[in-house]
Amino acid sequence: xxxxxxxxxxxxxxxxxxxxxxxxxxxxxxxxxxxxxxxxxxxxxxxxxxxxxxxxxxxxxxxxxxxxxxxxxxxxxxxxxxxxxxxxxxxxxxxxxxxxxxxxxxxxxxxxxxxxxxxxxxxxxxxxxxxxxxxxxxxxxxxxxxxxxxxxxxxxxxxxxxxxxxxxxxxxxx
Amino acid sequence: xxxxxxxxxxxxxxxxxxxxxxxxxxxxxxxxxxxxxxxxxxxxxxxxxxxxxxxxxxxxxxxxxxxxxxxxxxxxxxxxxxxxxxxxxxxxxxxxxxxxxxxxxxxxxxxxxxxxxxxxxxxxxxxxxxxxxxxxxxxxxxxxxxxxxxxxxxxxxxxxxxxxxxxxxxxxxx
DNA sequence: GTCTATAGTGGGATAGAC
DNA sequence: GTCTATCCCACTATAGAC
Lengths: 174, 174
Hints:
homodimer, mainly alpha, 9 helices, DNA-binding
C-alpha cells in the first residue's frame, strides 16, 4: 500500500517543532527543510512561502485554544485555567498566534469565531467577553515573558482576575 | 561655550526615533549611526553593544509609563485611560519595553517599583494590582496588534474592565 | 520533485590605520 | 574618536539542470 508523503504537512509539523523547541528564529526554511529531509529550495515546490507555514501554525494554535476552552465548560475559573494551561504549554506558538494581526483572509472560515465562542457564551456581553479575553491574554503574556517579579504569586493574580469578572458571568447571582 | 556632544545619548535618541517611526527592524546599528552622523563601527566607542541601546529604551519607556500613571491620580478609570493613551502613542516602544524579560540588573534601581507604585497604591493588594496591570496590558497589546475585530468597541471593553475591578479599589464602597 | 548555485539583502561586531 | 575594510553570519527566494 502506497502512502504518499504530504510534504506541506511535514513542513508545517517541522516548523512547529522548531518553533516550540527552539524559538521563532529557529523556524527558518533551511531548518524546516532539514527536518523534512530535503533542501530548502525544494520546500517551495510544496509551499508558496514561509508565511504559509506561519499561517497554518496560527490556525493550529487558534483551533487548539478554542477546543481547550470548549472542553472546560462554562465556568469562568475553569475557562481561565484552561486558557492559561494551553498557553503555558505552548508558549512560543501562543505568542506566534497572538502577536500579529490575524491574517483573516487566509484562515479557515469560522475559526476565529469558534475560538471566541466559549467566552462569549459564558458572558453574553461581547464587551465583557473581550475584556476577559484580554485580561487572560495579558496575564499569560506577562508570565511567558517573565515579567512578573520572581516571587510573584501568579495563582493569586489569576484568582483576583476571576473574582473580578465572576459577578458578570451568566450563571452568577447578580 | 563648549557643549560636548554625548554620542551615547544621541545614539539612544536615534534608536528611539527609528523604532517608533519605522519599527524594530529599522533600529540597526547602521541606521542608528547614520542618524547620529557617524559610521556604525564608531558607535562602539560610545556604547558597548546594541543591547545597551535597547535597555536604555526600556528604561525610558518604564519611566514614562510610571510618570503617566502617577499623573493620573488614584482613580481607576483615569489610570486605565492614562495607561492606554501612553501605550497607543508609543506602540513600538511599549512593545519593546514589555515583550521580553526585564534586564533588572542593568536597569536603574527602583525603576520597576516606581512604575508599579500607582497601581499598587490604588488597590493595596498586590495580587489585584497585578491582575489589573495584566488586564490593561492585554487590552492594549491586542489593540496594538490589531487583534480585535475591526468593528469592536474597545472603549466598551475598557469600560468593562474598569467596572470589573472598580469594586476592588481602595476608595470604593464594599 | 529534487538538486546545486546563487542572487540579493541584511545584520552585529572587530582590526587597525589615522 | 573616526574611518575603511572586513569577517562571519543569517535569511528568503529564484533559476535552471537533472
